[in-house]
Design a protein that fits this description.
The chain has 346 residues and is α+β, with helices and mostly antiparallel strands. It has helices spanning 9-14, 35-44, 101-106, 116-137, 152-155, 202-212, 236-249, and strands at residues 46-48, 53-59, 83-89, 91-100, 163-166, 189-194, 230-234, 265-266, 269-273, 289-293, 297-302, 308-314, 317-333, 340-344. The chain has a single domain (43-59, 84-216, 224-344), classed as Alpha-Beta Complex (phage-related protein like fold), CATH 3.90.1690. The strands form three sheets. It has a seven-stranded mixed beta sheet with strand order 5-6-14-10-7-9-8. Strands 1, 4, 11, 12 and 13 form a five-stranded mixed beta sheet that branches. Helix 2 packs across helix 4 (116-137).
């Protein structure tokens, strides 16, 4: 009968295990992917130079001056107020980590298995990614909250009716950006409800939403919109069923039993799975499909305050250095009519 390595005392005492130096596995993260930080904030960010808040102009109405006239008809020139300003405040978030200089010295040379500072920074960045996911897809509970940014649920509200019924978010009677949709009917997002994930219900309503939110101004003017690019976000209950339907439509799957996984698209645009939705966060509609037009919706960062890092001595701990990672941002929508949400009403 043989013996195991663990029973060879001298071998264990004199020999290190294979350490896999400078490598480590992350099982601390709760989500499969952090959509907000990895895909949206880096790719879609817009920087403002300065200012105490974020402000933009909106034409909310027009004077009906056009008419058919007869020869020599007298003119009747009408003017009226049509312009309003919307504004949102800056919001700030931070994450941090610290290290003692003696830890760094101990974590060096032949004794170094992994980079201690790198692991501390990774923990801070993971915490920030979790917070950003919550910030982007959520909203402050009420207007009294002065810390949380104005995320998706602030700008895109759900409703059981088909059409532009996405009004003011709960807790914000003054409306998104300080403009109430009760006063300005066109300051609403598109909404609808479905009961079945199939071509007659969800897909038809999805197509309608994408068509009805495609607004184009009849006159040329300087606009905030920068390239109308839609992306569509949903949970696995919706995406998984769509992929199953695609497989049923294909008579030649071959030996791949999941040939359409990761390949579902709407109008040639990939449908994006949001792992954060699986936890059923507060306020989120049931099995939602969000249509976001990045031409009118952007994360906005104060210039120089996007993942700004600053390191200094910790107070009352002269051997400890603390690093802070800071962001000053908010989420800005210049045209709510270009956004939509479809929710499961079954």
């Amino acid at each position: 009968m043989g013996i195991t390595v663990e029973q060879l005392t001298d071998l264990i005492t004199t020999t290190q295990r294979e350490l896999g130096k400078l490598k480590w596995t992350d099982i601390a993260s709760d989500l499969q992917e952090y959509i907000a930080m990895q895909r949206i904030l880096r790719k879609r960010k817009v920087r403002f130079d300065s200012g105490t808040a974020i402000q933009w102009n909106i034409m909310v109405d027009y004077v009906e001056s056009a008419k058919n006239v007869a020869l020599w008809a007298p003119d009747a020139v009408n003017v009226g107020d049509a312009m309003k300003t919307a504004n949102i405040p800056w919001r700030h978030c931070t994450a941090n980590y610290a290290v003692d200089r003696r830890e760094i010295k101990m974590n060096s040379g032949a004794a170094k298995i992994v980079d201690l500072v790198q692991t501390r920074r990774a923990q801070a960045m993971l915490s920030l990614a979790e917070l950003m996911e919550e910030n982007f897809w959520g909203k402050p509970a009420t207007s009294d909250d002065e810390t949380q940014p104005f995320g998706i649920q602030y700008w895109i509200t759900s409703h059981s009716s088909q059409g532009f019924y996405g009004g003011n978010a709960s807790g914000f009677t003054s409306g998104p950006g300080g403009l109430s949709s009760s006063t300005y009917e066109n300051w609403k997002n598109y909404t609808d409800e479905y009961t079945t994930i199939d071509s007659a219900d969800l897909f038809a309503k999805w197509r309608r939403a994408a068509t009805f939110t495609h607004f184009q101004s009849p006159m040329k003017h300087s606009d905030y919109e920068t390239g109308a690019k839609y992306e569509y976000f949903t949970n696995y209950a919706v995406l998984g069923e769509i992929e199953r339907i695609l497989e049923l439509r294909n008579d030649n799957l071959g030996n791949d039993i999941a040939s359409y996984d990761g390949r579902a698209v709407f109008r040639r645009t990939p449908i994006i799975w949001v792992p954060y939705f699986e936890s059923s966060p507060s306020g989120l509609p049931t099995n939602p499909v969000y249509g976001i037009n990045w031409g009118v919706f952007n994360p906005v960062f104060l210039k120089g305050e996007y993942m700004a890092e600053e390191t200094g001595k910790a107070p009352n701990q002269h051997t400890v250095s603390a690093t802070h990672i800071d962001c000053s941002l908010n989420f800005k929508c210049t045209n709510r009519r270009r956004l939509f949400v479809l929710a499961d009403g079954s």
